[in-house]
Amino acid sequence: MSLTDILMQQLVNGLVLGSFYALVALGYTMIFGVIKLLNFAHGDVYMVGGFVGFGVLSAVGGTLGADWGGIAVAMFLSMIAMGCLGVVIERVAYHPMLAAPRLSILITALAVSLVLQNSVLTLTDGQITAFRTDLGFGGLEIGHVFITYNQMVLVGTAALLMIALETFVSRTQYGRAMRAVSIDKDMCRLMGIDVAKVIAITFFIGSALAAAAGTMAGAYYGSIWYFMGFLIGLKAFTAAVIGGIGSIPGAMAGGLILGLLEAFGTQIPGIGSEWKDVFSFSILILVLVFKPTGLFGKSETERM
Amino acid sequence: MRITRRTLALTAFAGAALGGLSLASLPAAAQDSITIGVQVPTTGPEATYGNDMFNAVKIAAQEINEKGGLLGRQIELTAGDSACDPQQAVNAASKLASQDVVGVVGGYCSGATLPTLKIYGDANIPFVITASNSTKLIPANPGNAFMINSTGADQTTKAVEFMESKGIESVAIVNQGDAYSQDLANLTRDAWEQAGKKVAAFETVNKGEQDYSALVTKIKAADPDAVFWTAYYADGGLLIRQLRQGGYRGTIAVGDGSNSPKLFEIAGRAAEGVYAFSNPTAEFLPKAKSFSETYKKQFGNAPGPYAPLTYDGMMLLAWAIEKAGTTDHGPIIEALASADGQEWLSGPISFTDENTLARSNFIVLEGKGGEWALAE
């Protein structure tokens, strides 16, 4: 492989990885937008989404086949289930805390994360669950660059979900309401917007996107376990910060940028793949120090 | 942050689980029973192996108890969950040491076993290590521990010999930075270079990562004849799958930590033709036939790779206790050291001056039709 081939291949790798980061980062950023909360349970919603997707696929895989058709159904049902879970989490754990100091709700989010993680740990004895699918390994070879069909479906689905979200937020009434709530909740209430409902919808969509990512990751990589949401949760948070937390296009761009940085970072001579995470989180620190508003963020006075 | 949260979660869970276990076993504990500690990961990513090893000890203890026990006393087992995590293992070992165990059997994940050696050493508790085989354990052994699995050095010899016989010239070695996989990777790199061959890439990946695509591209660019994964099956399955998915067509070999049926569940078809260096598993041990049947009847599945060795570990310890004629630690340790080649399920056991198994037990397996078959 020539250097160009290697870089092109890493570009593909980075796009696939970045799609996962972006889908999870979107939830972070949307939730931060409406209630100014860093929802540290979001990575665990991704993980539970993977398990629900696995459960559905095990149930319907026999009749629908465990290829992308079956996975699409599993993903859709997992998205709805996790959307509902997101709404429940918000109602039970965050809603009563909205008026409390920021730190209290942040700690609540950590608690929710531990509750989700330990529930799955107990149910699965902490073992790895193999996510069996019938996905083939075929793909297109362009020059020396190999792109599998799975990767295309994955990036395509992620792109579709992101376009749908962007349309929802910019074109619909609820999308407008969501943007308004993220600017000024009190003013929204005065204007007759049902703020609680908008927050619930935001949690539904954010959690559903995480569930989509969780199910696709499980199917694509082939295994799921209770701790899989932790690292991606932190990475997605990093992606959201790079893009500017609170900004939806920022989360998409941030996810892709982080994915690409990691892929190319692995290739730097003399730096082994063990430095990958050091690389990602150094970027988080650099962004926080030099441009805390990220690429697309607007500066605000109150930050947490 | 990463370690703290995880450990916190595991500790809380394991604490609760173990608390329940020891409480439940209290009424059954006759005053003069012999307590044996079992240190294995019963939670966490390697729990499949751990539970398997625990089951093997249960069968051994049951057989001994049915025959009237040891020195006329029944064996009582107490579990310590190491979770394949050094911090967690230290907690488990301290707990076992404080329970006045006569001996400890188990030890899986060298990284987790390593820090427990000092704890058992300080209490002078005989410790039969039935799986962990990193050479890093050898200098850390205060003399009370006995390794009945062949060491990483033996595995390296086997791996180099096998890959040379396959005409492999260059190899990419991937480990996970823990005591077991790093030891095996370093030993293999040195031996391979000494044999005049090329190490095309030497990589360390982070545990718990899902995406290895960037690494796969790097490996493909280095174009080695073989890739040798020295860590465990859970992440090994992911890497093998992504190597094949990424179009790598060379030989893939894995160490004994990846010899698991689960590797096939995770990697799917990609695991076909993968070679594994392993201690002999039950199906390749003629003497283990009745053990396998008992195991299947009692637990519903075939015994895993370390079950026969762990059964042997319990039996060896029982033999040493009988020979010593006492439950005092010193004489039992002396008796263990005197093991001179009696036949057990996994073959004869005798020890070197360093308390390691005096022979290499490694065989080569190949993935065929979703399970391991003998390669040679």
Question: What layout of secondary structure does this protein have?
Answer:
The complex is a heterodimer of chains A (304) and B (376).
Chain A: H1 3-35, H2 42-64, H3 68-94, H4 102-124, E1 129-130, E2 139-142, E3 145-148, H5 149-171, H6 173-183, H7 185-190, H8 195-221, E4 223-224, H9 228-243, H10 248-267, H11 276-290
Antiparallel strand pairs in A: 1-4, 2-3
Helix pairs in contact in A: 1-5, 1-6, 1-8, 1-9, 1-10, 2-3, 2-4, 2-8, 2-9, 3-8, 5-6, 5-8, 6-8, 9-10, 9-11, 10-11
Chain B: H1 2-25, E1 34-40, H2 47-66, E2 75-81, H3 86-98, E3 103-106, H4 110-113, H5 116-122, E4 127-129, H6 137-140, E5 145-147, H7 152-165, E6 170-175, H8 179-194, E7 198-204, H9 213-222, E8 226-229, H10 233-245, E9 251-254, H11 262-267, E10 275-278, H12 289-299, H13 307-324, H14 329-337, E11 340-344, E12 347-350, E13 363-368, E14 371-374
Parallel strand pairs in B: 1-2, 1-3, 3-4, 4-5, 6-7, 6-8, 8-9, 9-10
Antiparallel strand pairs in B: 10-13, 11-12, 13-14
Helix pairs in contact in B: 2-13, 7-8, 13-14
Keywords for this entry:
heterodimer; A: 304 residues; mainly alpha; ABC transporter involved in vitamin B12 uptake, BtuC; two-stranded antiparallel ribbon; 11 helices; 4 strands; globular; B: 376 residues; Rossmann fold; 2 domains; 14 strands; 18% strand
Rounded to the nearest angstrom, the radius of gyration of chain A is: 19 Å
Biggest β-sheet strands, sense, barrel of chain A: 2 strands, antiparallel
Averaged pLDDT of chain B: 89
In DSSP terms (H or I, runs of 4 or more residues), the helix count of chain B works out at 14
Strand order of the largest sheet of chain A: 1-4
Please describe the biggest sheet of chain B, giving its number of strands, its sense, and whether it closes into a barrel.
7 strands, mixed
CATH class of the largest domain in chain B: Alpha Beta
Global structural class of chain B: alpha/beta
CATH topology of the largest domain in chain B, which one?
A: Rossmann fold
Tell me the name of the CATH class of chain A. Answer: Mainly Alpha
CATH superfamily of the largest domain in chain B: Response regulator
Return the CATH topology of chain A.
ABC transporter involved in vitamin B12 uptake, BtuC
Low-confidence regions of chain B = 5-30
Q: What count of structural domains of chain A?
A: 1
Counted up, domains of chain B total: 2
Strands across the major sheet of chain B, in which order?
Answer: 7-6-8-9-10-13-14
Number of helices of chain A: 11
Query: Whole-Å distance between the termini of chain B?
Result: 46 Å
Name the helicity range of chain B. 40-55%
